[in-house]
Amino acid sequence: MDEKIAFSQRLADAMRASGYEPRPAVLEKEFNTRYWGRPVTYQAVTRWLKGEAVPGQDKLQVLAQWLGVEPQYLRFGETVVRQVRERKARWEEGFSAEERQLFDAYLQLPMDRRKLLCEVMRAFVLAYGEKTQA
Question: How far apart are CA 25 and CA 46, in angstroms?
């Protein structure tokens, strides 16, 4: 399914779930009362609801907050949100405190030192570890 059409369906579903009729006039009015930037036009929100366009990140944030959903859900759908949650849970549960401290120390290094360390680790994995994607 086209990502713009999928976005429009998620937007319409979120509007219904929040008690709003998914019509351009409703979306334009409700969005513009919450958005601090330049107001969006009737034509722009019509394109969102018809699956012809996806708003930028700043507008997605406003839509998500208004409709009580995650911006990632509106933009990418439940599958991606679930994958992100699973990866985050693996990250939080899968490492010891010592490993997290080591990674924090890595993040403190300048970029050229990080690249060097990555090269050393890749060489080490190739020489002594199992074949993994590094």
Answer: 8
